[in-house]
Amino acid sequence: MNTAETLTLLQTMIPATTSIVCSLGRTSEAAHALFPDQTLFLDSMGDVTPVACGVALGMPKSPVVAIDTDGSHLLGVTALATLGGLTAQLGNLCILVLDNGLYESGGGLPSRTCALDWVALGQAFGLPIREVDSADELKSALSGVFQRLTFIVVKIVNKERAPDATKTVDGLESRYRFCRHLEKLSGKTILYPATKS
Amino acid sequence: MSVELAYRALVAAGVEKVLAMPDSFLAPLCRRVKTGPEIGYIQTTHEATGIGMAAGLTLTGTRSLMLMENSGLRSACETLARLNLSHGLYTCSLISHRGAFGERHWWGLAHHETMVPMLDALRFRYHYVRSVDEFGPALVKAYQTLAAFQCSVALIAEPGLLEGLRQ
Questions:
Q1: pTM
Q2: How far is CA A56 from CA A96, A166, B18, B27, B96, in A?
Q3: What ipTM does the predicted assembly reach?
Q4: Above 90 in pLDDT, residue B92?
């Protein structure tokens, strides 16, 4: 599967108002085409999964997806030790790691120089990581999504070079849009009006 | 017990989740929060993980507090720079002041030397808390400042507060 196919399939398997925290590069562009106003676009490798985890813990009745990438996830791999202790509290979280094996935005070099067994990595921390390599496998892995912590690593092959960036939303605009989305979902005020007192 | 007073101050301030990368100074407060029951306790293995999770919690309107030693600013610097400066994703932290005047340990002094330059560079608003009595009022103001959504906030736990937490 390629990045766009993966996210298009994801879109069919999750509620329309799902909150998303997304990694950068090609993945970000593809997510912006599908989920422009419900996604926190993070240009912050290593932080996608922890931030999504915080959102999921703060809104336990709302579905949350972390769309992470292999390079980003490996940079923040220490988060797994924390996630392993929170599985019972994170039934509303789906972590999707799109693994192309590359630092694509960083020049196309490999994201690791050794074999990586994601399933074994998950097992080491008590995390139910599933590796998938096809649309059918991804559908199956997503079948119980948001009933328990779902953690899927999707093997990605993009035959075309990454398109030029078209998304003009910066970090701050994305934060504001995402806050408005969360306010609408939760009914809570997150950004307070300025008052004089 | 002063640690109990500090814990009660957290509860009174409406803190719902404490994230922690424990250090010897803040460990008594970590232990107290962990035994609960009012506040959720999440222990991390890296300060950046806690900061990221706290930022996500803040976005949902959930009041969270990251507990870490001041060396954690260096450890989580990349995350803090990205979240604070590029994304406007803010957090509130209680940071133990390792290396304060009177520090006995050689390895602690550099923690002090880098603390304020890093807080300034990462655009934190910060306030020194010198006793357990000051902790509650400082927390209230910290969350007022955080609610402005313009910066992250740090309360720096000075030796007087840290000694109080051991009692």
A1: 0.97
A2: 14, 29, 15, 27, 28
A3: 0.97
A4: yes
